[in-house]
Each structure stands twice: as C-alpha cells, then as structure tokens.
Design brief:
By secondary structure, this protein is an alpha+beta fold. It is 37% helix and 16% strand. Strands 2, 3, 4, 5 and 10 form a 5-stranded mixed β-sheet that branches. Strand 8 and strand 9 form a beta hairpin. Helix 10 runs antiparallel to helix 22 and helix 14 crosses helix 17.
Length: 710
C-alpha cells in the first residue's frame, strides 16, 4: 500500500505501510503516552497525599492563621515599692493609640486625621511625624495615651479608614510623686531598634509595650517585665474582627522593694527648692539608703507618655542639668567636709589630738602663703577646734607632717574614690589623689602644696554625694557601713571596725560642736527636743578668686555648698550629705539638712517649714516644673494640656504630707587655695524647740514614722 502524500523520492524505494504496522505504531505511542500520563498522575497523587497527610499540620495552621489573629497582650510591669510597701512606680489602666509605620498607606494624612479626631496639639502632631519618619517599620510609635473612652470608641469604629493604627486598652506606667523620684526610679519607653537587635523578642515590638530606660526601671527590667498574655480572635479576609475565641491573661512582673523611704524622698527633693543639688540619707544600723534626692529633675510620667520635643529641649538646654543624677554622677571638691576624715588619719598616724597649732590667718608653704578662711586667724588650735571652727591652718600644718599617702588611704577607707555594689546603671567614683596617681595621670611629681590643697578637700580631690554620705556614716559609727538599695540585699560591713571607739567619740563630739557649740553651723540645730545633730560644713571653690568671689555673680562661678551630718550625735541612727551646686557656700546646704532631719524626727514641724518655703517658691517641685514647661512652651508657640495625674489613694501614701498623720576642675588644682569664709559661727540659733505632744497620732500601717532609738 502506498501513502500518496509521501510521494516518491528519486533514489529511494517507496515504503509500503500496512494496517498492522499502523496499529503497532499506534499501540506503542499509546503506551508511551499512557505511561507518561500515569507517571504524572501518580506524582500528583503522591504530592496530594503528602500535602494532606505529612503537611497537614502546617497548612492547617496557616489556614487557621488566615481566619484567626493572634496578638500579644503586654504584661503589666511589677510595682516599685518603698521600704513600707507604698508604690513609687505603679500602673494605671488607660486607653491608648499607636501607629505601625510599615502598615501606613499615607502616613502624613493618617496622622493629620488622627490629630483632628483626637484633638492633638500641633506640636504633638509634629513630634509624631518626626518619630514615624525616624522609626523602623516594625517599631510602634505612640500617638496618645490616657484617652477618654469617647475618643477611644470614636477611633475604634473608624478603624477601616486608618490602616496601621492600633487602638488598645492597656496599662501605662505611673509615678505618683513625679519629678521627686525621676533620677532614682528612671522611666520607661518603647524599645529602640538597637535594643530589639540585642533582644529580638516579639514582645519588644508589641504596640504599647515599654521597657526600662534608666534608673531602677532599667536595672530590674527582667524582674519587672512579667509574662505577656495572648488574645485569639476570628477575623474576615479584610481583617475585621468577627468574635473573640480565647484570651490568656498576662502575668504581672515581680515587685521590687527598695530601702527608700517614700515620704522622706519626696520631702528632701522638695526641700532642695530652687537650688540645684542632692540629698542622701542612710540608716547607720543597716546601710539602707533612705533618700537619694537629686534636683532639678524631670517628670518620668512625661517619658512614660512619650515626651515631646519642646519639653525635652527645655530639659536638655537647662544649665542645671536636670537629666543628670547628681547623687551618683555629680562630682565635687568635698571642701572642709573631709576634715573629720583627715583627723582620723592624723590620729592613726600618731598625732596627739590635743597638740596645738597657732593660726594667724595663713601658713607659708615653700614660697606660697596658704590662707585660712578666717583672715584674722583662730589663735591656738587643737584638733577639735580645727574641726568645729574649720581651721585650715591646723590641717595645713599637720598634713605636712604625715604626708598624703596616709590621708589618701583613710579617704578610701571612708568611702571616697570607691564604687559601691548597688543596683544602679552607673556611678562615678571621683578622685582620691596621691603621689602615684599624679605621676600616672600627669607625669609630674607630687608637691607639698598638693597635700595642702587636698587636706582641705580641694585640688584634685573629687567625691560624689553618695560617697560623702557613706563617709559620714563610717565616721559616726566606726564601722564599715556599706550602702544598700534593695531590702533583699543583706547588710554588709558591720562586722568590720574601721576606727577605735575613743577616736570615734572624739570626732563625734567635735562635729557636734560644729552645730551645737561654737562651730560654723549654728543654724543647723534641730528644733526637736533631746535630739542633737552633728555635722561638718564645706565650701568648695569652682573658680579662682580672680574670676569670682564665690558668692555672687554668674551662677556657674559660685562656690558649691556641702554639709555632712549624723543624728543623734551620741548614738547615730541616721547619716547623710547635702550638696548644693553653686549655692555660694555651705550656708546653702545645712539648712536643708536641718529641715530634712527635722522631718525624720518630727514630720509635722518639718512640713510646717516646707509649706512656708513652697509658698514663697510658687508651689511644690512638680507644680513649678509644670508651670515652667507651660511658660517655655508658650514662648515657642506651643500649648500644653496635661491630663490630671493625681490618684489620691496612691499619691497620699508616698508624698511628704503622708508622714504628718504618723507623727573643682583640673584648671585650678595647682593654684593656691584661699578658702572662702565659712558660715557665721555666731549666727543666732533657731527658736527654742517646742515640746513634743504627749500622745502623738498613730502612724498608718503603710508608712510608719521611722524609729528614733535603735
């Protein structure tokens, strides 16, 4: 059979195709095609079987995730409590709104519409836009907190118009006494991109979640954080919530209990008033830090709510540096407050405390004359008079006899130049100079004038207020008192005796005469019956006499005022230090110490003195801060509208009034120091103390008044 369409080709024999050949060829092709199709079918079946069996769980979960939305519930932070269980940092329920930048379709327009809906100030809207532009896409940006329910509801029903906007009901951090605990407690805020990279925990990018940024909040972040909860809801394809399926409650973080006395902390911070400085109070029996007040400060509630650019600029540009913790990071020449410590070094080196030196108003050392603060001189002076009259010439003469090394060793033994094991983010430990230090630091030999400068707390010597308070407690007790900030930390150092009892008693009496005798701080006497305070004044120069007299002129050129103290003097229970930056001398420091210690022993009298002062200053520290911010913002065209923050039940437990119901620089280090005049020793003492009431009001169980007798 021929196939016509194939035709015949020259030189080739025509091929004959039979029906059997065609049938055989068709069958072969059918088998190949069938086998190929069967293989594909088997592969599809195997794949379907694999997906439906082996991968069942995976795709079931993915399908479920399309239907169910799982979100983390930020845990409530643990409370920070004072020694009596009253909250220094707590939580309060509020309604808030956050933005997720990567979900925004029109960031500018969305923020503008939110500002109109929530009635935000123009300055706040500008801050939000800046934060959104600078934030990473996943990092939430707070829009507003502490919203009224009506505002929250109005936004919630319009969510389809606001992609990337996350309204939620949660808890915000609340600091009842505001700025009086700013440096101590710190504040919270959203995790930064660097913090998320170090700890890629999904909780850190959950809207509304904040971590500790400074102070105790940062140091105890793990304890305070808690365990997040979770919420499962059924949603439509467009993301609309259909119903709640399951909610797992969060677990609140653990509380942190500090040794701080809340009302005392509040009182001391407020008593600093218009000055810039710090107050530290310790319990001599345990080392408990009862007060670590540093002012001026900031309101941690502002940081918790999302501080605005205008308010932050006010804090950043203030020459008094309200963002620095002066208790831990303020370093000052200790001035004459080191003279009791130097006396301990002299007695340890064998100097008889009754040996005298004649003070004629100055002493020649080499080719220089080092003056005493009293240009008329103190006459014949022994160690006790050198302390209570703060005679510089006595210490010039005696320090040259023993050299700087014994004095430096005693300074370190008393806590100067030391870093203490406290749960704080950082602390500066200052300088205790000696010949080896100067050679290493400057490559120069130690000179006699270096010893003379250092022996009155000037020259290279620098100390923090915390170190000065520790020095006061060790001199007062003779024991190696170590400060502690949490009640769970066992007291340390009390088995070590630093000084012989007879030396301790001698210096105690001399320091008592500073206040209660012919000393330099007569106005520091306590108006409390049968309680005597002992102390030592100090005036620390910051510039030479050629620039300023230390008492007037520009604020930054005035001398620092210092005062270390303990009470009762014959059986010390409390010790502390007050440092006032550029206060013009020690006269700015010891009245504050007097009032703070009065509050400890007699809260009513202390509050009476504070009320009179705050009436002159224009309100409490928090009220003055808010008024200052309002004026600062108004001058820059911004308005301020803060929601009320007072919560009576919490605030009344930690404010000072709650207690009533219970009853130098290197540039001048080589210069000759001409000490400033100390406070007038003949100043009239305060009015006679009023006898304490026979039956004082009982203290509430949450904030008992401190005991007076050990």
């Amino acid at each position: 059979m021929k196939i016509p369409f194939l035709g015949d080709r020259p030189g080739r024999n025509p091929k004959m195709i039979s029906a059997s050949i065609l049938r055989s060829s068709f069958e072969r092709r059918s088998v190949v095609i069938g086998a190929f199709q069967g293989t594909i079918g088997v592969m599809l079946a195997l794949r379907l079987g694999y997906l439906s069996v082996a991968e069942n769980e995976k795709y079931r979960l993915e399908s479920e995730s399309n239907r169910v939305n799982l979100t983390l519930i930020p845990p409530r932070r643990g409370w920070i409590l004072d020694r009596n269980g009253a909250p220094l940092a707590s939580n309060r329920a509020d309604f808030r709104v956050d933005l997720i930048p990567e979900r925004l379709e029109d960031a500018e327009g969305t923020i503008d519409r939110l500002g109109e809906l929530l009635q935000l100030e123009p300055a706040r809207i500008a801050d939000i836009k800046d934060k959104v532009s600078a934030a990473r896409g996943f990092q939430p940006v707070e829009v507003a907190s502490s919203l009224r329910y009506e505002q929250f509801a109005a936004l919630s029903v319009r969510l389809p118009e606001f992609p990337g906007v996350v309204p939620q009901r949660g808890f915000s951090r609340f600091y009842p006494t505001g700025c009086t605990v700013g440096h101590l407690i710190g504040y919270v805020g959203p995790a930064s991109s660097d913090e998320y990279e170090k700890d890629p925990n999904p909780l850190l990018i959950t809207p509304g979640y904040k971590i500790g940024k400074d102070g105790v909040e940062k140091q105890f972040e793990k304890e305070l954080r808690g365990i997040p909860g979770a919420r499962r809801v059924e949603v439509t394809a467009s993301g609309r919530i259909v119903r709640d399926l399951e909610t797992r409650e969060d677990v609140q973080g653990q509380p942190v209990k500090l040794t701080i006395d809340g009302p005392l902390q509040d009182y001391a911070a407020r008593r600093i008033g218009l000055e810039s400085g710090s107050v530290v109070i310790m319990d001599c029996r345990t080392g408990d830090l009862l007060c670590m007040a540093s002012m001026p400060s900031f309101d941690p509630n502002s940081f918790s709510d999302g501080i605005g650019g205008v308010e932050y600029a006010m804090l950043r540009d203030d020459e008094r540096v309200p963002l620095r913790n002066k208790v831990l990071k303020g370093l000052y020449p200790p001035g004459s407050t080191v003279k009791p410590m130097v006396s301990m070094a002299l007695m340890k080196a064998g100097i008889d405390p009754e040996e005298t030196v004649h003070c004629a108003g100055g002493l020649r050392v080499g080719n220089r004359v080092f003056g005493c603060w009293n240009r008329r001189g103190h006459g014949t002076t022994n160690m006790a008079k050198g302390i209570y009259q703060s005679c510089d010439v006595y210490f010039y003469a005696m320090a040259q006899r023993i050299g700087m090394d014994p004095i430096a060793d005693m300074a370190r033994r008393c806590g100067l130049g030391q870093e203490f094991p406290l749960p704080v983010t950082s602390q500066f430990y200052g300088t205790v100079p000696d010949p080896a230090w100067k050679m290493k630091k400057w490559g120069r030999e130690w000179q006699t004038f270096d010893t003379v400068n250092a022996t009155i707390g000037q020259g290279y010597m620098l100390a923090s207020p915390l170190q000065l308070a520790v020095m006061a407690s060790r001199i007062a007790t003779g024991h190696h008192v170590m400060p502690r900030l949490t009640l769970g930390t066992p007291p340390k150092g009390f088995d070590d005796i630093d000084f012989p009892l007879e030396q301790v008693q001698y210096v105690r009496k001399a320091m008592s005469d500073v206040v209660n005798g012919p000393g330099t701080a007569g106005r520091a006497r306590l108006p409390v019956e049968n309680v005597l305070i002992a102390g030592k004044t100090g005036t620390a120069q910051v510039v030479s006499l050629s620039i300023s007299n230390g008492k007037s002129g520009p604020w930054k050129y005035r001398d620092h005022g210092l005062f270390i103290f303990f009470a009762p003097y014959d059986n010390p229970r409390y010790a502390g230090a007050v440092v006032i930056e550029h206060g013009g001398g020690s006269g700015a420091a010891y009245p504050i110490a007097r009032d703070v210690m009065t509050f400890l022993f007699d809260p009513a009298k202390g509050l009476e003195a504070l009320a009179a002062l705050e009436a002159q200053w224009g309100g409490t520290a928090q009220q003055r801060l808010e008024a200052r911010y309002a004026a600062y913002a108004a001058a820059r065209g911004a308005s301020v509208s803060r929601p009320p923050r007072r919560e009576e039940e919490i605030f009344d437990r930690v404010e000072a009034e709650a207690r009533r119901a219970a009853t130098q620089t290197d540039a001048i280090a080589d210069q000759v120091i001409a000490p400033r005049p100390e406070a007038n020793p003949s100043a009239a003492p305060p009015a006679a103390p009023v006898p304490a009431p026979a039956s004082p009001a009982p203290a509430p169980p949450t904030a008992p008044a401190p005991e007076i007798n050990p």
